Amino acid sequence: MSKFQELLTMSRYQPEPVKLLMLFTKANVESASNDVNKGFIEPVMCVDKLPNELSDYEALCKEADVINPDWDLVFLTSINADVDSSIIDKSMKSMVSDVQTGKNTSMYVVLDRQDNLVELVGS
Fold first, then answer.
1. Phi and psi at residue 67, to the nearest 5°
2. Which of 98, 61, 101, 56 is nearest to 77 (CA)?
């Protein structure tokens, strides 16, 4: 089972309905002389979806590519599905800020285009 499919399955069985918040990003990587990659992550687009609106990771990637194919990583988290849209907007803005500043990124599941978990290491 893919990492995304595991997350999707878990989200469907939560005691309270949840929405998945997804922030698609572009990794701007520079190779350093010591074989350590450095760079920054730039937010590209975000979306919130109910788990039943998603079938699998491949379909999500295809849908994202129609809107903007220039992304490398997706940050995912969940929120109570019954919250007001202003709370969802605020949560999305927090995600964008977290990614831009590199703070609190451990709160998110991060996947690459191949559905591999990505671990971010700050400097």
1. -80, -50
2. 98
Which pLDDT tens digit goes with each residue over 25-53?
999 877 666 666 677 899 999 999 999 99
Confidence of residue 2 (pLDDT cuts 50, 70, 90): confident
**Pair of tokens at residue 58:** 């491949």
Q: How would DSSP label each residue in 10-29?
A: HHHT-SS-EEEEEEEEEEEE
Question: Residue 46 has what pLDDT?
Answer: 97
Residue ranges of domains in the chain? 3-112
